[in-house]
Amino acid sequence: MAKGKGPKGKKITLKIAKKSIRISAEGGRRLDLSKMGITTFPKCILKLNDVDELDLSRNMIKKIPSSIEQFQKLRWLDLHSNQLEDLPEAIGTLQNLYYLNISNNKLTTKKLPKALNLLKNLRILNLGLNCLDSIPTSLGALKDLRELGLFDNTLTTIPNSVKNLPNLKKLNANRNPFLDSMKEEEPADSIKRIKTLYLVQEKDLCYSCLQTCQDERHNMNKLTNVTPSPSEKLSFPLLLTPNSSAKDNQEEWRLR
User: Where is the Disease resistance R13L4/SHOC-2-like LRR domain (predicted)?
Assistant: First the structure.
């Protein structure tokens, strides 16, 4: 009786890997093994460790071995949309890396390698669509980081050391249960902010307060009772015809 096993996936040979090398837009050598149905890291590609870019995205890889450190020329590494639950500390040795995409995996905060903060030349880091409940403050050491993806995790906060990175231009942290989002905004209409309204009878008011209220009520009644005479025609001294010049400026007024 055959034992139950997971999918074996496609076997990548050195010949297949060599045929998968492309020239990138920047002129470097790119090993593109994306969407190949791979379930395990192909050991044969260690013989091609002089490539500048490595794309293993959209596969079913569960583990990246420590031997990834042999790709010392690597500047671009794409591992998104796999089954990764952790990464080796050896990834921190890839000092030339400027792009790292590990989104849409099964990474938790505990399984993030501490050595990520050693990637001093990293400019783009995508950690979105994982299982991260916090972000290590040590990522604040990535001073050259320009773009950071943290979307679709379970983050409740982002450390200031990360938010205030000096060169960070783009931060995508959408769809996280941040604590700040649970607070309701203050209503814009001031009358909605009144918590208690006190009503009193006229006999309980002092003379000056009573006189003020009566004067205000009298003025309001005068405004309410004023109706324009049918014989009176409205005048538009600044307009040739009503709305003739207003039409061109409606959008401007609306913005104000």
Answer: 70-190
Spatial contact of 37 and 12, defined as CB atoms under 8 Å apart: no
pLDDT given for residue 16 in this prediction: 96
**Within its chain, how far is the Cα of 169 from the centroid?**
12
Cα separations in angstroms, 84 against 43, 62, 65, 103: 17, 4, 11, 10
What's the confidence (pLDDT) of residue 209? Answer: 61
How do the domains of the chain map onto residue ranges? 23-172
Query: 3-state DSSP call for residue 245?
Result: coil
Is the Cβ–Cβ distance between 132 and 106 less than 8 Å?
Answer: no
28 Cα distance to chain centroid: 30
**Beta strand pairing status for 124-126 and 147-149?**
parallel
Backbone angles phi, psi at 21, to 5 degrees: -80, 130
CA nearest 112: which of 82, 93, 86, 134?
Answer: 86
Q: What pLDDT does residue 33 have?
A: 97
What pLDDT digit, counting tens, does each position of 180-200 carry? 644 433 344 443 433 434 454
On the CB side of 247, CA atoms within 13 Å amount to 5
Give the global pTM: 0.69
Based on the number of CB atoms within 10 Å of its own CB, is 246 exposed (0-12), middle (13-18) or buried (19 or more)?
A: exposed
